[in-house]
């Protein structure tokens, strides 16, 4: 079918296994290997992992006529079974498929899930209604099935259109900013106000646990809250911390604040329970009160001292910090800590993600890159 219809893009919306149930047979080989399917040979020549999806380049060869074609597979991996996906994650996936669509030929895009009904129909509806809404400023949804996913994803799409720039275009915009600094500042302020205006509104029901447990004004939403699994006498299992994705990993960060006196044991429990082997402190540790409570013994085994002059923070210094953390190889979450567990942590994660996006895709979306960090209230 792919060969007959000259398909160049395949959108896959299911995992091979979900729980204990097989959902789809693997029709592509592992990276840089071949697989034979009767008269066709398929080779996976490239595979790029993002936080919620994988992009694969497949060479499809018709061995009888010795003809080769390239097919791009967009594999969304974060659609929960019998549930709705995160609308923003699905939107970013759809944006990636749309902006990389090959327009040389008028050929169909193949969309499939497991049954070919629910998820497939939802994605096609989002794609069609997006185009309809952009041209008519209105949409019509006839069926209620998967209505929530369609509505929420389109809502994200229309309130914050994608603003992806290539590296060259981004550098050009920075050069223009240097020539007209006032206009640049005005544009950034408008984008910031837009970002504030489209933030989700939450009620106290969305962070009930934090209202009773957290001691700061910045509270984690219940749906994102992390829980401690290690047992310490007279300690609760709640901690005011949340996971955040990077551009290529769904659980790349843990965001939290410096613990108050008597609660530092919970921070040690956090990094122990979630096997976090990197901690990024966004504010001077000399301003944080020392505490030695808890059953753990901590020893500095390899101290590294860096002498710095007392300069104010600059973009280059911040970039050096992010780049250094990215150079440390780990498969575990990176814990990022600040006084309130919000502002500086969010900036660090946003810059980290944008650098990953620029490195992997040679493009950048500063505006949309900030929205996944909005998981506190």
TrEMBL record:
Residue intervals of the Tyrosine-protein phosphatase domain: 1-171
One Gene Ontology MF term: protein tyrosine phosphatase activity
A Pfam family it matches: Y_phosphatase
CDD domains: PTPc
Domain named Tyrosine specific protein phosphatases: residues: 108-143
InterPro entries xref list: Prot-tyrosine_phosphatase-like, Protein-Tyr_Phosphatase, PTP_cat, Tyr_Pase_AS, Tyr_Pase_cat, Tyr_Pase_dom
The protein's name in its UniProt record: Receptor-type tyrosine-protein phosphatase kappa
Species whose genome carries this gene: Magallana gigas (Pacific oyster)
């Amino acid at each position: 079918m792919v060969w007959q219809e000259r398909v160049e893009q395949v959108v896959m919306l299911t995992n091979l296994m979900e729980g204990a149930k097989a959902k789809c047979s693997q029709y592509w080989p592992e990276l840089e290997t071949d697989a034979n399917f009767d008269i066709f040979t398929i080779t996976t020549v490239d595979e790029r992992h993002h936080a919620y999806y994988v992009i694969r380049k497949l060479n499809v060869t018709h061995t009888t006529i010795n003809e080769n074609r390239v097919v791009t597979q967009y594999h969304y991996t974060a659609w929960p079974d019998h549930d709705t996906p995160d609308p923003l994650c699905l939107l970013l996936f759809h944006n990636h498929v749309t902006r990389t669509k090959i327009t040389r030929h008028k050929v169909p895009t193949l969309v499939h899930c497991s049954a070919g009904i629910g998820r497939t129909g939802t994605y096609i509806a989002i794609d069609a209604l997006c185009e309809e809404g952009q041209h008519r400023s209105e949409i019509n949804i006839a069926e209620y099935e998967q209505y929530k996913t369609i509505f929420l994803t389109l809502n994200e799409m229309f309130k914050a259109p994608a603003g992806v720039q290539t590296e060259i275009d981004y550098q050009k915009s920075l050069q223009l900013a240097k020539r007209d600094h006032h206009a640049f500042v005005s544009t950034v302020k408008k984008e910031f106000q837009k970002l504030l205006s489209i933030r989700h509104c939450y009620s106290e029901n969305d962070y009930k646990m934090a209202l009773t447990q957290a001691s700061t004004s910045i509270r984690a939403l219940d749906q994102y809250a992390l829980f401690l699994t290690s047992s310490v006498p007279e300690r609760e299992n709640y901690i005011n911390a949340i996971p955040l994705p990077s551009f290529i990993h769904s659980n790349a960060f843990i965001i939290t604040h410096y613990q108050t006196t008597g609660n530092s044991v919970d921070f040690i429990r956090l990094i122990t329970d979630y096997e976090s082997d990197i901690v990024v402190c966004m504010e001077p540790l000399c301003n944080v009160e020392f505490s030695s409570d808890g059953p753990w013994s901590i020893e500095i085994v390899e101290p590294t001292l860096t002498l710095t002059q007392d300069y104010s923070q600059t973009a280059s210094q911040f970039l050096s910090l992010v780049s250094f953390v990215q150079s440390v190889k780990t498969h575990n979450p990176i814990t990022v800590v600040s006084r309130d567990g919000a502002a500086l942590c969010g900036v660090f994660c946003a810059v980290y993600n944008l650098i990953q996006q620029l490195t992997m895709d040679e493009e950048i979306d500063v505006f949309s890159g900030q929205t996944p960090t909005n998981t506190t209230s």
